[in-house]
Write a structure and sequence with these properties.
It holds the Pfam family Peptidase_M48_N. It is an enzyme of class 3 (hydrolase). Its main location: endoplasmic reticulum. With 442 residues, this protein is mostly helical. Helices cover 69% and strands 6% of the residues. The protein has 15 helices and six strands. The strands form two sheets. Strands 1-2-4-3 form a four-stranded mixed beta sheet, with helices on one face. Strands 5-6 form a two-stranded antiparallel ribbon. Strand 5 and strand 6 form a beta hairpin. Helix 4 packs antiparallel against helix 5 and helix 13 runs antiparallel to helix 15. It is globular, with a radius of gyration of 24 Å.
Length: 442
Amino acid sequence: MLLNEDLIVWLILLFSWTEYIWELYLSLRQLNIYKTNNTIPDDLNEMLTEESFKKARLYGIDKSKFKIVKDFYSIALISIILYNRWIYVAWHKSEHFAEFFNISPDQEILISCIFMSYVTLFNFIVNMPFTIYGTFVLEQNHGFNKQTVGFFIKDQLKSLVLSLVIVLPIISVSIYIIMLGGNMFVVWLWLFTTVATLILLTLYPTVIAPLFDKFVTLPDGPLRKGIEDLASKLHFPLSQVYIVEGSKRSAHSNAYFSGLFGAKRIVLFDTLVEKHDEQKKVTTGCTDNEILGILAHELGHWSCSHIYKSIALTEVNLLLLFTAFGLLFKYSMLYTALGFPAGQEPVIIGLIVVLQMILAPYNSLLSFFATALSRKFEFEADNFAVSLNYPNELRSALIKLGKDNLDYPIYDKLYSAWYHSHPTLLHRIENIKNKIANEKND
């Protein structure tokens, strides 16, 4: 029995380390490309200088080294937690903590909330050194971090509190459904998480996002008129255009639309709008027409129903995961393998073990295919922008964004296939060229 229990832990660790070694191999391949490729690709010669290309290369090297160290730290920590049965230790401490408030051990939902609070705080603390280094060393050294220490602390604390406010009620209801749902609990659990997901997606742009950043309406002018004309042409249900003050957090730039049902809002990072720094003699951001090219791409996601397709696939996956959980979570050895005494099988532990550990190979495989599908969606959105006669604007905007964000344009094929949810800049430029050529031939 003990051998079988140990075997479960060792099998979990075996897959974790196998995946880690595979990803380390990919990271080393990409790091080698950063170090050995010093030539600007022909497609980028017009808009990239030797200096900007070198900056992107050095930024890539530093990010890659940071990732390698962080990944090793993570796998080592996971190994220590599993080998020493710290999950049971955390549950046991949660029970002791509950005693101070006269919460009996049979009140599993309340103890599960204490346990999840412990886990969240633990992850927050053990990952904080990397969060601090990533923000105030890595991003700072390459000119991206704009956060003060006070802003950073407030931001991190808000994120911590918000995660607990959101997660604990969802966990509580989920456990209640599993405990009382009978043979149909998988369906009820899936329906509940689906509704919760849709509610969160609906609340994010108007309730959650403003807790972290300031949103102001885009003033009247050529850019706003261009956006409204584009939305009207496509019958996009635009309610408002906002500028988010992302420059208080980072120099990175982006644009997106939000709103799941009905009217939608377009959001532009203030770093996306063209600015000229007189002191540094540098122009960053995009022109109005280039921003319209970017938004034509974003509206391509809407026109092609990519958001709804992604949600549908996510829900199918959730149903499969919960079905697997329903079949496995009563297997007592999953709990004793983590150090729990026979007969003690908390639902939250079953969720963690089955969904995150036992199904880890499935999750990794699914993540790979989801990443590939995301790249397909990005090409479709680019093609949509080209069909609206924004090929040159989109191309120049993508190059400028890559330059401003120090995105090194050359990637190892395996690394890109495994990690990138977006095609590389060179692949997107090639796709735009091919799309233009095909439209001319037609």
